Amino acid sequence: MSKTYGILALFESAPAIYQAAKKVRSAGYTKWDVFTPFPVHGLDGAMGIKRSKVPVFTFIGGLMGFTLGMTIVWYMGYLDYPLIVGGMPYYSPVFPFPVAYELTILLAAFGTLIGMFTLNKLPMHYHPVMNYEKFRHLTDDKFAVVIEAEDELFNESEVRELFAGLHPTEITVITEEEKA
Amino acid sequence: MSHSSNPSDAAVGHHGAAAAVLKEVRPANMPRRPIVENNRDFAWITDKVCGIAEGKTPRWWWIAFIMSCMIASFTLFGLIYLVSTGVGVWGLRSPIMWGWAIVNFVFWIGIGHAGTLISAILCLLKQKWRTSINRAAEAMTIFAVACAGIFPLFHVGRVWFAWWLFPIPNHNAIWPNFRSPLEWDVFAVSTYGTVSLLFWYMGMIPDLATMRDRTRMVFEKRYAEAKTKTAQAFERFFFTFRQYFYGILAMGWRGSNRHWSNYEMAYLLLAGLSTPLVLSVHTVVSFDFAVSHLPGWHATIFPPYFVAGAIFSGFGMVLTLMLPLRALFGLQDLITQYHIDCMCKICLATGTMVGYAYAAEFFIAWYGANAFEGFAFVNRAFGQYAWAYWIMITCNVISPQFFWTRWGRENLWFVWILSIFINIGMWFERFVITVTSLANDFLPANWDYYSPTAVDIFTFFGTFGLFSVLFLLFIRFLPLLAFAEIKSVTKQADAHAHGEHH
Amino acid sequence: MTIDLNTCTGCNACVVACQSENNIPIVGKDQIMRGREMSWIRLDRYYSSGDPIENRTSLPSDPQTSLMPVACMHCERAPCEQVCPVNATVHDEQGLNVMAYNRCVGTRYCANNCPYKVRRFNFFDYNKRARDQFYLGPLGVNQFKTEGGILKSMQRNPDVTVRMRGVMEKCTYCVQRIEQAKIAQKVKARDSNDIHVPDGVFKVACQAACPSEAIVFGDISNPESAVSKSKANDRDYSLLGYLNTRPRTTYLGRLRNPNPQMPDYKPDALSRMEYKAMQPQSL
Predict the structure, then answer these.
(1) Is the bond leading into B169 cis (omega within 30 degrees of zero)?
(2) Which residue of A has its CA nearest to B275?
(3) In a domain, B497, yes or no
(4) DSSP alpha helices (H): ranges in chain C?
């Protein structure tokens, strides 16, 4: 038995998907998404998506990296095994800077990537949209809007009517397999 | 409305002199050169780029691959001989304790910097033309860093203890010396390799997803062409392999705009992180020299000079790689003359910066009135390594000047040969810096002359084989161009363009 | 340490003594030609003529020789210590620049940064392999296991490590002799606190061998020691002192222009021809 996941409308151009997204957003739906083969400028605003939270992860990673760098140099050179090197002080904030700087960037980069995967809930190798027969075009040359059945305002005929007003190439029902 | 053909008449019009001028003058419409020529659509772009990895392996690829493996074996055997017998198999001698190995290290790291510049710095500067070359350039970076990393690892006397450079607990309970630029190198180069890899991979995820989604279509086409039972069995195996290979790496990417939103932010952040990274990594590598006492090494100009030189040599290598690939795979509409123009202009700019740095070094050596420093520079130009110095000047300062001319940029054979000269010149620059300062330093009693041995030479040329092996594998299996990004900078990608018909 | 260039005759006894004391390997003619001599102290010779212009443009026909024995200066602000990534060369509280062979990874950055170039690198297993088999590596004979090799091992100083390939080495101010003297003093002192080694109790190898006592070594924290008095001399200077490395080995400059009006003036020949001219004519 298959369950309806949502309804998909297929478009051929970036301006068309932009207009479609604005329409769906003003219609008040909350559980919906747009699929594009590349990021379309302005689409985030049209969909009402807020600014991404990835920078938080980046910042935390960077802060951790910097502290780690300074701490290991201080601990190793000043506390644990101080050695006289060239008559220089055991610790100064200047010479650890390259090490701390590189670790800042390294951990910030890890933070960014982990943040992006976490916020996108990836890896997710299966998603109902992949059942769509023309799904391969959504990562190639076509654009789509999907309104999920789980949305409170979802009503199949209303959604079809809304889509029809946008003149898509086609309108399809996306189903997902029931878990046994 | 009456116009006068004389703009000055309009300037003294009745009211709104500014409006009158605008109506008359009508500035010419300067169209921007297109990033993708011949108005190719999205499907064409995808087919063109994915087709490279999806089609049958061309025969030239096999020949190149086998030759590259053979050349890479030189490095393998050279290193085995080195580690089993001792550093003495190289041409090093007192006082020149760093020879070809460190020159090669800086050479390869420098080449890698262009990839990060294209990906990160040009992204922040909103240069749309970067999208055709950034994937291959980043791949070049990662493979160049792999080749570079061989040298600092193996040039040490006791390679099996090289892990002591990392702050890892050991049986002596002693820690590394964080004042040493070699220690900074450990962190800088590791960070650079890792972050470049992460950036390259993240950038590839949407493209890998596209390739994942095309595997069935590709399989059906190839299976239909397979005539024998073995060919069909191979196609089935290859299909399964590609499904898993692209499927796992694509992480389940589906093109959702909610995902693109986080992705674009992460991309921008990685670009913003990679920019100071690329500037700092070659700065730290330059500190290997600048922090020491030697005349000719002890110079504050080294950080910007090395970074400019690295970008210069990196773009040279990008041109060396991309011009043949563009011809072999028919990518002229995606890597256009505009792209080649931009790359040549960057080579010209950075090459001129390097030339300026040479002149500045000489000036400061004279102006500073330090006898050792002054001698070091006169010795570079007229001493025992003068031959290397003048090769460097010819290849680095004189050759990129040809890019001022349109002919110099549009004759692609000429550009390709010049790009090779650029890299030869940059190798010689590192050679001149490293060896002349060591060979003729403070006390004349220590002066000597360094020549490489056969082991030095073969180990170095073998790394070109290693680089080629990795790059050929990249061409064969991964998307050569960042086609999702290319699509996003075409005219059709603009959501606010009018004139769209439903 | 001070080295008096006035009394140094350039006899090379210090070089030989250092080699015997510190198990410095003999690398053979081929490796010397390739610039890999291992001596920790060397004798630099410079040739000049009396004419400063001629010095720069041609080889002098009647050269004057200047000599300088150069070993590790044990700089207070050692450029080598700063750049070793693994802390294999650091300073101890006595002021020696110590070289930890077992920590050395062999990056050779210290040798590059030394302005005096006193550091030596073990390019091959000079102690383990025969002189004509360095390039064979593991396919060569392991001398530590042959009878001849074991006999040779008995020649070596048991107080000094025998270095393997890949390791830097340099003059250690005969640290083994310093430590032996310190231990002997502590044994002698028993419960009392008198552990300070008196001046002149021991000599380092080069100092002991020098026939004209040009090398003076000791404790500069003791103002009465011979070396402190030597350093108080007007002629005392540091080699490449402007680099601010603060070397612990300083030189006492050679006098080449004694004042003829002094009562004990004796004319001194600066070159071989001058010396020959000064000899009484043979009959």
Answers:
(1) no
(2) A105
(3) no
(4) 13-21, 29-33, 52-57, 79-83, 109-113, 147-155, 175-189, 205-209, 226-231, 272-278
B142 interface with C at CB cutoff 8 Å: no
Domain residues for the domain of A97 are: 54-120
Q: What is the pLDDT along chain C (283 residues), one digit of tens a residue?
A: 999 999 999 999 999 999 999 999 999 999 999 999 999 999 999 988 877 787 777 888 888 888 999 999 999 999 999 999 999 999 999 999 999 999 999 999 999 999 999 999 999 999 999 999 999 999 999 999 999 999 988 989 999 999 999 999 999 999 999 999 999 999 999 988 888 899 999 999 999 999 999 999 999 999 999 999 999 999 999 999 999 999 999 999 998 888 899 998 988 888 888 888 888 876 5
Q: Are strands C42-48 and C64-70 parallel, antiparallel or unpaired?
A: antiparallel
For chain A, how many structural domains are there in total? Answer: 2
Residue C261 belongs to some domain of the structure: no
- Averaged over B462-484, what is the pLDDT? 96
Same domain for B13 and B65: no
Give the predicted TM-score (pTM) of the model. 0.92
Rounded CA-CA distance B464/B108 in Å is: 10
Residues B11, B56: one domain? no
- Residue ending a domain, among A75, A94, A120, is A120
- pLDDT value at position B4? 46
Q: Is residue B269 part of a domain?
A: yes
- Structural domain boundaries enclosing C194: 2-256
Average pLDDT over residues B163-192: 95
Task: List all residues of chain B from 165 to 184 with a beta carbon under 8 Å from chain C.
Answer: 165, 172, 174-177, 179-183
Contact A120 B255 (CB under 8 A): no
Smallest CA-to-CA distance from A112 within B202, B247, B139 is with B202
CATH code (residue A26) = 3.30.70
A76:B175 CB<8 A: yes
CATH number at residue C164: 3.30.70.20
Quick one: A63 and A99 in the same domain?
yes
Chains that touch A (3 or more CB pairs under 8 A): B, C
Q: How far is C72 from chain A (nearest CA, A)?
A: 14
Number of domains in chain B: 2
> Residue B3's pLDDT is what?
47
Tell me what the pLDDT averaged over chain B comes to: 92
B344 pLDDT above the threshold of 80: yes
Do A108 and A84 lie in one domain? The reply is yes
Structural tokens at position A54: 């990835």
Q: Which chains have 3+ CB pairs within 8 A of C?
A: A, B
For residue B6, what are the domain limits?
1-30
Rounded to the nearest angstrom, the minimum Cα separation between A80 and chain C is 14
Interface touch B443/C108, C-beta < 8 Å: no
Closest-CA distance, C89 to chain B, in angstroms, reads 10
Nearest CA in chain A to B218: A136
Indicate whether A40 and A94 sit together in one domain: no
Q: Are B144 and B117 in contact (CB under 8 A)?
A: no
DSSP string covering B454-485, please? HHHHHHHHHHHHHHHHHHHHHHHHS-SS-HHH
pLDDT digits (tens, 9 = 90+) for B290-319: 999 999 999 999 999 999 999 999 999 999
Mark yes or no for CB contact A76/B497 under 8 Å. Answer: no
The domain total for chain C is 1
Residues B13 and B145 in one domain: no
Contact call for C105 and B186, based on CB within 8 A: no
- Specify if B495 maps to a domain: no
Separation in Å, CA of A75 to nearest CA in chain C: 15
Average pLDDT over residues B113-120: 90
Is B402 contained in some domain?
Answer: yes
Query: What's the token pair of residue C79?
Result: 């450029």
Domain at B48, CATH number: 1.20.1630.10
Query: Which residue in chain B has the smallest CA separation from C90?
Result: B177
DSSP string, B260-318: HHHHHHHHHHHHHHHHHHHHHHHHHHHHHHHTS--TTT--TTHHHHHHHHHHHHHHHHH
Same domain, A12 and A41: yes
Interface of C with A (CB under 8 A): 76-79, 81-82, 87, 90-93, 246
